[in-house]
Write a structure and sequence with these properties.
about 65% helix, three-stranded antiparallel sheet, single chain, Arc Repressor Mutant, subunit A, alpha+beta, about 100 residues
């Protein structure tokens, strides 16, 4: 195989897939920003999903999905109920 031919083939492949790669990068940036906003709200103490959503200016359903994911992977912990909703707090992963 010719190294120049391989480089050209890879360059063509990157160009052909550029729209998908750019869309994936955009999704990753959006997700990171949402998680950062949720974590910022929880740094002030325990909050329920509606409280987080209102304070961060996000949709409640979207916050619920992200909080559920953060809980599943141990980044937040479920606390006691505040009215009809559970509260959530950040987990200190520095000692883990």
């Amino acid at each position: 195989m010719n190294p120049n031919t391989d480089k050209d083939a890879l360059r063509q492949l990157r160009e052909a897939r550029k729209p998908w790669i750019d869309r994936a990068k955009g999704s990753i940036k959006t997700q990171a920003a949402l998680i950062k906003a949720i974590r910022a709200q929880l740094e002030g103490g325990a909050k329920s999903v509606p409280q987080i959503a209102a304070a961060a200016g996000l949709e409640t359903a979207q916050v619920l999905l992200y909080v559920a994911g953060l809980r599943k992977y141990g980044a937040v912990a479920e606390g006691p109920k505040d009215g009809d909703y559970y509260t959530y707090t950040l987990v200190d992963n520095k000692n883990a």
